Every structure is written in structure tokens, then in C-alpha cells.
Amino acid sequence: MSNTGVVGYLEQPESTELQEYELPTPKDGDLLTKIVRANVCGSELHIWRGEHPLIRDGALGHEALCRVVETGGEVRDNAGQELEEGDLVVPAYFATCNECARCGRGQHQYCENAYKYWSRAPEEWPHFHGTFASHYYIHDDQYVYKVPEDVDETAAAAANCALSQVLNGLDAIEVTQGDTVVVQGAGGLGLNATAVATERGAETIVIDGVANRLDRAEEFGADHTVNLTEFETVEAREERVLELTDGLGADAAVEVTGVPAAIDEGFQLLGNGGRYLVMGNIIPGKEATIDPGKAVRKSIEMTTMMRYAPWYLQEALEFLSEHGDDYPFGELVDAEYPLADLQDALRDSANRTVTRAALIPE
Ligand SMILES: [Zn+2]
Ligand SMILES: [Zn+2]
After folding, report:
1. Residue 40 CA, ligand 1 centroid: distance in Å
2. The domain 164-304: what is its CATH number?
3. Residue 53 has pLDDT above 80, yes or no
4. Does domain 4-146+328-360 sit in CATH 1.10.575.10?
5. Cα(124) to centroid of ligand 1, in Å?
6. How far does the centroid of ligand 1 lie from the alpha carbon of residue 294, in Å?
7. Residues 249-282: pLDDT tens digits?
8. Terminus of the chain with fewer CB atoms < 10 Å: N or C?
9. Relative to the alpha carbon of 163, which ligand is closest?
10. In sequence order, what are the residues at sequence separation of 6 or more whose Cβ sits closer than 8 angstroms to the Cβ of residue 38?
11. How remote is the CA of residue 338 from the centroid of ligand 2, in Å?
């Protein structure tokens, strides 16, 4: 076995290279893993293009399925299962320090040190800080779970991002049996939200402007779809949602478009007492006109979400174990690249010639 591995490094916007480093020996409680497959996620493209508010360079990649190569002594996953060489695991891509004020208050999803390992320079030990790499180092303050055997590998590789966040988010707005839920946007988060809301017994209405994304939404459980090219104005979409909800408006809505104007539209599509989860607009500096009176007149409860409480990763794996076969999670990845073609995978994803790229180390 070779004693070195490679890690994808962003030197400057849109320019990556693979750098070779000696494999680290894991410290007590840590894990050295080999990447089985990693996904190119939308937020990674923001960093790649230089749009991220904080990150300009460093190791890239956060979604992955990993295989344990070496454990630092006896290591258990956060469900208490002992981990051994060869086990498939997924890590939370952020740390939960248990030392900061937020962790102290039980608000682990807002840990002040969440990104302490994220996008570090590869020359810094233990080098393998990102998942666009041959190996990935998992620290003892990152949640990690063993992957159940019946979970599809492609689906498992994405569990630590969209699905975990959606499960936490839909809990935050208490989506439950009998709710009508509008999902604004049929990208990765939107499709996951549609499947989870469906499993919770909600009726879903998915809005998007691309017909094949809406077809996909139907495969993920959408009861109704609204195409922006057919319902061109906010008023037309409001009318359609009222028609589908006996004139009441939706009980809950999930914004996963990244389009600022979608928020004001959400106020219009929700009914009285509507619960609104906004999590697609993650880039600061974009603006839209919002009419707060629309929200207040309906007593709309609005919440936002970044990341997720780390134990939702376990729930994500359980969701895939129970319901993974009912939805085409595996088909969300439409292109695979060898790790050596990292730059192509990022460029094709940025140009949208592929929807979801996976990187497979040799
Ligand atoms: Zn992601
Ligand atoms: Zn903390």
C-alpha cells in the first residue's frame, strides 16, 4: 500500500490542483478514511468560483462516503457502534466542539468552531481536510456514523448534506401528516424535501421553471407541480396554490431556490399561520423587495437554516435505509469523474452541463 494520498486544493478561484501528502496516522479517537465517492455540491461551486464570503482557497469537498483505513485506538461512531478497518462511514462535514458557548447551550448546529477543519491548507497536518481527495481525516469532534448495509452507496455519499439539512429543517417547521407543503425549487434540497415531506404524510406542491426537474420531483413524491413557464406571474402561481389548497394557501413552505424574490412569493403562497423555512438563499449581498406586512397579516412563522444538528445525519441514514428504494436517490448523480479530472468535474458542474458530479478516486 502506498503511504501517500492526494488532496484537491483550490489555489485561486476556478483553479484547482491535486497535491500529494504522506498519509497521517490518526490520533486517539480520530479516523483515517479512504474516499469511496465524493459529490460536487452547489456550495462547493460557490467556493470554487470565489463567491464564498469567507473562503478563498484551501482543500475542497464536503460530501462523501468513506471507508475506514485506520482508527486512532478504539473508535465508536456517534450511535455507539465500534468502527473497524473496512467499515463504510459518513461524517458530518463540520465539527461540534462541545466547548463553545453555543455547544454549551445545546445549540450544536451553531457551534462557533464548526469550520475549524474546513478548507484548511493541505500542507497543514493532517493534510486531508476535504473530500475531493483520495483520503479524508475525520476528527473525534466530527459526528460520524457507520452506513447501514442496505443503503445505496451513491445515496449515502450525499446523506451528510442535503438530506440531513432537510430532515432538521422540516422538523423546525413541524411538517406533519395532513399538511400541504410548497417546495420552491426542485434542485437537490428541493427533491430531498419533497421525499421527506411525502414520508411525513404531507401533500406537496413543487414549483420550478424546468420541466425535467419537475418530472424528477414527481419521482420524489410531488403530488402537484407548478411550472414557472406556464404560471408566469406570482399571482398566477398564488391562484394555482389556492386552487390546490381549497382556497386556504399552504400550511408550510420551503424555499430552496437561492433566488431572493422567492421569499416574498412564499409569503403569498402560504395561508394564515403558515410556517416558512428559508434555506436556499445562502449567499449574502443579494437583495429583493420584501413586503413584511404580507407575512404579519398571516402570522407567518419564518425560520432559516444552515447546516443541521449533527445527529440528523443518523436520521438521514435511517431514512435512506427505510425509504431509499422508493425514490431514485441514486440517479441524482448524473456524471462520474476520476479524481484526476477534478477540474473538469467542477467546470462541467459550474457550466451546468452536469447536474450532480461524483468524484471517484482510483
Ligand atoms: Zn453539500
Ligand atoms: Zn462548539
Report:
1. 7
2. 3.40.50.720
3. no
4. no
5. 23
6. 32
7. 999 999 999 999 999 999 999 999 999 999 999 8
8. N
9. 1
10. 61, 63, 64, 65, 131, 132, 133, 157, 358, 359
11. 35
